[in-house]
Design brief:
The complex is a heterodimer of chains A (628) and B (353). Chain A is 35% helix and 20% strand. In chain A, the strands form five sheets. Chain A has a seven-stranded mixed β-sheet, sandwiched between helices. In chain A, strands 3-4-2-5-6-7 form a six-stranded mixed β-sheet, with helices on both faces. The longest helix of chain A has 20 residues, at 205-224. Chain A has 20 helices and 22 strands. Chain A folds into three domains: 15-234, Pyruvate-ferredoxin Oxidoreductase, domain 3 (3-Layer(aba) Sandwich); 245-431, Thiamin diphosphate (ThDP)-binding fold, Pyr/PP domains (Rossmann fold); 521-620, Rossmann fold, CATH 3.40.50. Chain A is an alpha/beta fold and 628 residues long. Chain B is of the alpha/beta class and 353 residues long. Helices cover 30% and strands 20% of the residues of chain B. Chain B has a domain at 3-212: 3-Layer(aba) Sandwich (Rossmann fold), CATH 3.40.50.970. Chain B has helices at 3-6, 27-37, 60-63, 76-86, 98-104, 106-115, 160-166, 180-192, 214-217, 219-225, 274-281, 303-318, 323-327; strands at 48-52, 67-70, 91-97, 120-125, 128-129, 135-136, 171-176, 197-202, 226-229, 236-237, 243-248, 251-256, 290-297, 332-335, 341-343. Chain B contains 13 helices and 15 strands. In chain B, the strands form four sheets. An eight-stranded mixed β-sheet of chain B has the order 2-1-3-4-8-7-13-9, sandwiched between helices. In chain B, strands 10-11-12 form a three-stranded antiparallel β-sheet. In chain B, strands 5-6 form a two-stranded antiparallel ribbon. The chains are: A alpha/beta (628), B alpha/beta (353).
Amino acid sequence: MTVLDSPSQRSHEPARERYHEVVIRFAGDSGDGMQLTGTQFTNTSALMGNDLSTMPDFPAEIRAPAGTLAGVSAFQVRIADHDIHTPGDAPDVLVAMNPAALKKELGDLKPNGVVVVNTDEFSARNLTKAGYEASPLEDGTLSGFRVYPVELTTLTRRTLEETELDTKTKDRCKNVFALGMCYWMFSRPLEPTIGWLERKFAKKPELVDANVRVLKAGYFFAETTEVFQVRYEVEPAKLAPGTYRNVLGNTALALGLIAASRRSGLPLFLGAYPITPASSLLHELAKHKRFGVTTFQAEDEIAAVCAAIGASFGGSLAVSASSGPGIALKAEAMNLAVMTELPLVVVDVQRGGPSTGLPTKTEQSDLLQVLFGRNGESPLPVLAAASPKDCFEVAMEACRVATRYMVPVVLLSDGYIANGSEPWRLPEVEDLPDLRIDFHTRAEGFAPYARDSETLGRPWAVPGTPGLEHRIGGLEKEDVSGNVSYDPANHQRMTDLRAEKVERVAREIPPTEVVGDPGGGELLVVGWGSTAGAITGAVAAARAEGLPVSQVHLRWLNPLPPDLGEVLGRFRRVLVPEMNTGQLAMLLRARWLIDAESLSKVQGRPFFRQEILDAIRERTAGTNGGPR
Amino acid sequence: MTEAAATLTKKDFQSDQEVRWCPGCGDYAVLSAVQQVFPDLGIPKERFVVVSGIGCSSRFPYYMNAYGFHTIHGRAPALATGLKVSRPDLEVWVATGDGDAMSIGGNHLIHTLRRNVGLKILMFNNRIYGLTKGQYSPTSERGKRTASTPLGSVDNPFNPLALALGAGATFVARAVDIFLPHLKDVLQRAHRHRGSAFVEIYQNCNIFNDRAFAYMTDKENRETAIVHVEHGKPLVFGEGKARGIRLEGLRPTVVELGDGLTADDCLVWDETDSTLAWVAAQMLPPELPTPIGVLRAVEAPTYDGLVVEQIESERERHGEGSLDELLRHGDLWTVGADGHIESAGADDEAPAG
C-alpha cells in the first residue's frame, strides 16, 4: 500500500492515511472464526463501494489440533479504490489470533507491514505448539513490522463480564473484537455486521447482544487507546452503474446452472458425491428445489455422473460436479455420454493433485486429464472460468453448447475461484441468452443418429414420445440409424464425426481478444482459468513500465479458438503461466509448433502478480521498450 | 390406460434387431416373458425404458422395441435412478447379470435398493461370466473350476436374495428362466410393486456353465428340489405335496406330511415378514428345497416419490422460484450513474464460517 497523503497528526486524533488499496489477512485457529471475520469485513467493504477480491485458505482437517500450524485458517481480502483482479500478493496487514497463525503467515507480510496479535494466546505452551523457542513478540522476530499487541481474549471477557454467557462462549466472540478494531482502523461502519448478527442469531438474542457489544468494544478500544496511531482509508472504486453483490465462484456457478435451466426450460438435475472443493455447489443447488432443481447425492462419483446421464436421456439439463479425483472415477461414464451423444455438463473444481493431493488448495492440473483421460478417441468441449463471477456466464455457456451440440462438456474451475469472491454486477434476466431447445417429436423419418447440418448434433428424443422408441448405448453406433455396428469404415466415420462436432463449436468462439498490442510484438502471455487476475495485473503493470507485452486469456480449451495460432504467430515469444507443469503450453506447442514457454507454479496457491511481472521483465529485458 | 396401450401385443415389443444370444441360452426365455408381460401392463409403449449394464443379459434392451439404454459395466441401476427420479412417469426396468450387478456394480445395486427407487431390476443369475468367456462370478460356488480358476475358486459366493434383503429391498423375488408362467407372474408382481423390485432369475448358460440349476430344473427334480412361496399359503412341496417346511425356532426343517401332520401345520408364507424372507433366502440345497416366488413385498415410500414431493412442497410454500429474485439475493448495493453507492437490501443467509 502506498500512502497517498498523510495530514499532520493532531494531538488527540490519529493520522488518516489514504490508500489506493490494502490487503488484509485474518489468520487464526480453525475454530477462531477467521472465515466469518473475513467475510464480514469483505461484505462491509463491498457496501462501501470498494472493488475487492478474496481468498480463503483453510486446512483440509475440520479441526486440526488447536494452536498448531496445521490448524491455521486464514482469509485474505484486498480492497481497492480501483478495478482489481486478484486478492493481492502479500498482505499489508496481518491479524494473527495465535502464535501458530503468526508463525505461518508472517513470511508473507510486506516489509513494514502491520501486525495485530492477540497477546493472550502467547503462552509458553502455545509458543511451543507453534514451534517458537522464544516469544516472537520479544526476540526481534517482528522488527521491521508495525506491531499492535492486544489482549484480545482478556478484553473480550471483560466486555462480557456482566453477561450470563460461559467463558467458552465469551471467548468465541474474540474474533468479533478483532473485527471491530479493524473496522476502526479502516474507517468502516459497524451497521452491516450488526444487521447480519441480528439476522444470524435472530433466535438467540443473548448472542446478538454479546457480539454487538464486543464488536463495538473492539471499535472503541481502537479509537480510544494510544495503540493505534493511524487510520487507513480506501475510497470507493469507480464501478460501472448497476446492482452488485459479492459472489463466491461456486455460488455463481450454481446460479448460472439454474439460470440455464430457466432459460432453456429444462429441469436441472445435479448428480454429485461430496468432495472438496466442489461440495458447496451441491449445497447451493440443494437449497433451490422450488426452481425444479433435483440434487442427487449419489453413493459414489460414478453413480453421480451415471444418474446425470440417465436424467439427460430423460430430457433434463444434467450436470455432475466434482474435483480431480472424482473426475478420474467418472471417466468411463463421460465416454458413455460421448458415445451416446447426450448433453451433459461435468464440472471439475480442480485441486492440488495427484491422488488425494491437496484437497483444499488450488491447482490447474486437470486440463490434460479432462482432454485426454479417457479410453479411445474421446473428444469433448472444455471451457474454463476465469474468476468467481465469470462462473455464472461460463456455466450458461457450457449448458448452451451441451444441449445445442448434444455433447458432454467439461467446465473447469478451481479451488481459488470456487472459494474466492468478488463483486458481481447482476445481469438483467431478460438479457441472458435464450437457451430454448426443442426435443425431437416427429416420428416420420426419425433416426437416432441423424445430424443437424450445422452443429452435427443428433436429435434429442426423450422417452415418453410416441413412435420414437430407440436404443442407445456404449457400443459403436452405425451412422444415422444408431444401430450397433462393427463395420470398419463406419467406425472411422463416427470417430471423425464426433471430433468434427466438437471442432464446430469453434465456429461460435469470438475472435481472440489481445490485450495490449493486437498487431503483435515481443511477448504474449497466454493464460486460462483462474490465473486471469494475476496475469491481467502483471501485464498491466509491465505495460505501465513500457514493456512490450500483451495478453490473451482463453475461455475455450477445446476447441481452441480457430484464430489463436495466427495470433500466437504475431509474437516473438509466448509465455504460458499455469498452476501445473505446463499443460496448456504443451498443447500450444503440439498444435502450432511454436516455442511456447511454460511458467509453472504448483504450490497449492495462486500466482502472485509479482511472479508473473518478474517473468515478463526477464523476458523483455533489452528489447525495444524494455529496461536496458 | 390409453387405447393404444390396451391393444399392445408381444409383437409390439419385438425390435427389428437379430437376437444374438447363443442358441439354447436361457436369456431367450426371459426376453419372451418380458415381451409377453409388457403389453398387459396397461402402459403406453413409449413409456417403457429398459436399461442394462454390460454382459450377455445386458444386450436385452436391443431386442426390446421400447426406449432402451445399454450402459456401462455395473452402472445400470445408477443411470436408471437418474432417469426414474427425473421422470417418474416412465416405467423403468433394469436388465443385469450376476457379474454386472453383484461385482462391478454391487455398490449401485445396494444403494438403489436401500433408497427404494421405483425400478424393476431383473438380475439374470447364471453364476458365470459368459460374455468374457467363462470366468467364475460372484455367485459361482466355491471350488468352481473356470478359465481364471483352474484349481477351483477359493472365494465364497454372494447370496443375491440375502444381499438384496440386507440392503433393505422392499420387493425380493426369485424365478427361473424355463418356468415361463411363474416367471410372468413374478414380473407382473414386480411391476405392481411401488419402489425397487429385485428379481433374481436363475438362468442357464449352456456354453460356460451348463446345467448349473439342473439339480432343481430337471423334470425329475422339480417337485422335490423346489418350494413355491406364496403369500398366505403353506410351504409344501415334493411329489403329491407330501412334504412341508416348518420352523424349529428360526431354523426351517423338512417334515413329511401325514400321521396327523397336514399342510395347515406348515409354515404359512407372509411376504411382509422380514424375518421369514431372511429364512427363505438362506434355504440352500441340498438340505432344503430352493424357494421360488415373492419372498418379500412391503410398501414403503419411494425415493423418486419423495424427491418430487420435496420439490412440490417447496413450490407450495414459497412459490415457483423467480430467477431475478434468486440473483438479487444477499447483500446488495447499487452504484448510480454518478458513482453514488447505496445499500440495496440484505438477506438472512449466513456466509461460510
